[in-house]
């Protein structure tokens, strides 16, 4: 059994509005992607197993910059930085190609396939967002352990605390003049806000991506998380406890909160 991870860092960070792509924006003096990678690589499964291969997606014009931002972290781990695609889904697919996943069509990428596992002893692949730089090691370990315990697709989930209402207008539509009307209040007990890292057997993840490859470059049709692709193929997805420290940095406010949390953690 081996564990590989994909760290997505190819987004532009348009909502953060920084001059640099989001993954390269500093948090306490270090780029987000470096924080996220350090915590991933420090994680251990219950039996001590750690991530052996890390594939990081970078904006095409920042591959070398992302490589430099990871200097000194590898410590025996194989780290590969690849150019991402136009959507998160396309970026993960590009990383899986580097992992050498032979897609069902028979195409295959020369690469750094992480494993020579015996049959029946699957490789675990985590997919994690650099935009969640403070996701703790324990959470990473919990996800790996759940996959190894036989759950072939695992997401960390948090209870939803706000009251959620369904409205008749898409997100982003102007609501300043009360233009959106409430259709219903959604029962919250069965809702979870999901995070990363998400964990999969290599087989389940590459099959889900291969099935959705036609939509990977289309912002409107691409999936915003990998478990969503598994759901589309009819596969079961399981939830483990999430962690509030795995919150995603989307806006400048999120970055400011992460700065405070990190200061607290180091105090
Ligand atoms: N991501 C990626 N490739 C893309 C788009 C996103 O690898 N084409 C990654 C981001 O780098 C991030 C994660 O997916 O780590 C989650 O995406 P999001 O938070 O939306 O980041 P951005 O797309 O960079 O931000 P924005 O949507 O505000 O532009
Ligand atoms: Mg985005």
TrEMBL record:
Superkingdom of origin organism: Bacteria
GO BP of this protein: isopentenyl diphosphate biosynthetic process, methylerythritol 4-phosphate pathway
Site (Transition state stabilizer): 15, 22
Its EC number(s): 2.7.7.60
InterPro entries: IspD (IPR001228), IspD/TarI (IPR034683), IspD/TarI_cytidylyltransf_bact (IPR050088), ISPD_synthase_CS (IPR018294), Nucleotide-diphossugar_trans (IPR029044)
Family per record: Belongs to the IspD/TarI cytidylyltransferase family. IspD subfamily.
Protein name as catalogued: 2-C-methyl-D-erythritol 4-phosphate cytidylyltransferase
Gene (UniProt): ispD
């Amino acid at each position: 059994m081996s564990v590989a991870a994909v760290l997505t860092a190819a987004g532009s960070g348009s909502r953060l509005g920084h001059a640099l792509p989001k993954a390269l924006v500093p948090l306490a003096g270090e780029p987000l992607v470096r924080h996220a990678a350090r915590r991933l690589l420090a994680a251990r499964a219950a039996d001590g197993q750690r991530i052996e291969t890390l594939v990081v997606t970078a904006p095409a014009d920042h591959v070398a910059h992302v490589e430099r931002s990871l200097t000194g972290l590898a410590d025996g781990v194989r780290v590969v930085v690849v150019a991402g695609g136009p959507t998160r889904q396309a970026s993960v697919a590009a990383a899986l190609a580097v992992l050498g996943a032979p897609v069902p069509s028979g195409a295959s990428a020369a690469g750094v396939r992480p494993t020579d596992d015996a049959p029946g002893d699957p490789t675990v692949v985590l997919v994690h967002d650099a935009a969640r730089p403070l996701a703790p090691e324990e959470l990473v370990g919990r996800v790996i352990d759940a996959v190894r315990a036989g759950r072939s697709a695992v997401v960390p989930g948090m209870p939803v605390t706000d009251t959620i209402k369904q409205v008749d207008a898409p997100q982003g539509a102007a609501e300043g003049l009360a233009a959106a009307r409430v259709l219903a209040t959604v029962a919250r007990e069965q809702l979870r806000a999901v995070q990363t890292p998400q964990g999969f057997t290599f087989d389940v993840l590459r099959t889900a991506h291969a099935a959705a490859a036609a939509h990977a470059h289309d912002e409107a049709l691409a999936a915003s998380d990998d478990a969503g692709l598994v759901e589309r193929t009819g596969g079961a997805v399981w939830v483990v406890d999430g962690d509030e420290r795995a919150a995603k940095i989307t806006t400048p406010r999120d970055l400011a909160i992460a700065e405070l949390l990190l200061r607290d953690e180091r105090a």
